[in-house]
Specification:
Blueprint: H1 3-27, H2 34-61, H3 67-71, H4 83-103, E1 110-119, H5 120-123, H6 132-138, E2 147-155, E3 168-172, H7 183-195, E4 200-204, H8 217-220, E5 230-233, H9 244-253, E6 257-258, E7 263-268, E8 271-278, E9 300-305, H10 311-316, E10 321-324, E11 333-334, E12 338-339, E13 353-357, E14 360-364, E15 381-387
Parallel strand pairs: 2-15, 3-4, 4-5, 5-6, 8-9, 9-10, 10-14
Antiparallel strand pairs: 1-2, 3-15, 7-8, 11-12, 13-14
Helix pairs in contact: 1-2, 1-4
GO biological process, one term: lipid A biosynthetic process
GO cellular component, one term: membrane
Protein name: Putative metallophosphoesterase
Length: about 400
Amino acid sequence: MHLVDFLLLFLAFVGHVAIAVTIFNRLHAIGLPCSVVKLTEKLVILAAAVVLLLFSIYFLLQGFAVYQPAFASGRFWPPLLYLIPCWAASLCVAPLWIWRKLASRRPVSYLANTSRLVSLAVERPQSLVGTRSTGLLLKVPGNQIFQLSIEEKTFQPARLPAALDGFTIAHLSDLHMTGQLKRPFFDALIDRTNELDCDVVMVTGDIVEKAPCLDWIAPTLGRLQSRYGVYYVLGNHDQRLSDVGALHRLLADLGHIHVGGRCLEVDWRGAPVLLAGNELPWFKPAADMSDFPPSPEGPFRLLLSHSPDQFFWAQQQEFDLMLAGHTHGGQIRLPVYGPLIAPSRYGVMYASGVFQQGPTLMHVSRGVSGLQPIRLNCPPELTRITLRSPAV
C-alpha cells in the first residue's frame, strides 16, 4: 500500500465515522417518538457497518489501492462516489475540534472547581448490578459507572443579588432508574447528595424509565434534604413510561415541585427568584415567559432544562443561570479529542461543563447513569454549585 492510498483510506474512514456519528447525535435530539428513535438508530448503525464492510472488501480485493482503481482506470465503481463526502467530512473534524475547544473556554464567571471520586460500590458491599448486560459491561477495563465524581463549583452570575451570596445548589441529572443498577446505588447517591448540605436540589430529567422502578422514588428521592425544596424537570427517557402522570404524582406527594413548561416566583433568603422549566422537544410547551419580561432590576432568573439544546432559548429569555443534563458527557471520552457521542443538535459542543453566552451561564451535568451502563474517562457527576454575588 502506498502512503497516498493509506492516507486516503484513513481520511475516508474518519469521515465515514463522522457522518454516522453526526446523524446519530441529531437523531436523539429532535423529539421523535421512542419507537422511531430506537428503530432508526439501529438502521444507522447497521448501515454504517455494512458500508464499512463493503468498502473494506472492495479495497482488499484491489490490494488497498485507492487512486488507481477508483479514478484512473475504466473500472469505476459508482459507490466510490461516497468517498467524496467522507473525505470532505474528515477535513472538517480537526477545525471543528479546534473551534469546540475555543468555544468552551472557561467563562470568567466560573470562579473555582474541585472534585473527588468516591466509589459507591465499595461503600455498598451488596451487588449493585441489576442485569447480566450491566455485569458484562462492568468488566470492561476502566468502566467508571460506580466511580461518582463529587464536584464543587463556584459561579458568579453578574445579576446575583447580595442576599444570595453563598447560596448552594445540588444539581442531579440523568438518574435513569431502569433496574440495570439496583436501588442501593441510588440510596448511596442520595446519601452523598444530602452530605453536601445544599440550600436547594435541582433535578434535570431522565429520572425513571421502567415502571417497576417507580417504587424506588419514595425511598430514594423522598430522602433528599434541602432548605428550600427540590425542583425538577423531566427528560426524554421519562417519556417512555406508559403513565408519566404516575411519576409526577409520586414526586408531588414528596413535596417536590415540577417546573417543566411553567414559571414560578420563589423567595430565597428574602430575594425574589424566577424559576422556569423547559422540557422541549419531548414535553411541550416551554415555559411561557410573556408575563415575565427580562429587566435589569428584575429577579434572578434560573432555568431547568433537560437538554442543553435550549441554551439559545435561555439567552433569548435572558436567564442568568441554566442547569441541564441529557448528554452524559459523552460517556466515553477519547484522550485529547474528548467525546464522540452526545445526543444534541450541536453534537458534542455541550456534552458537559460550564458555558457562557450572552447573559446566560449554563452548567451541563454528565449525569449519574445511562441507558448503556458504561463510562470511560467520564465518571458520573454529582455537583454542588455555590453562587457568589458581585455585589458583595
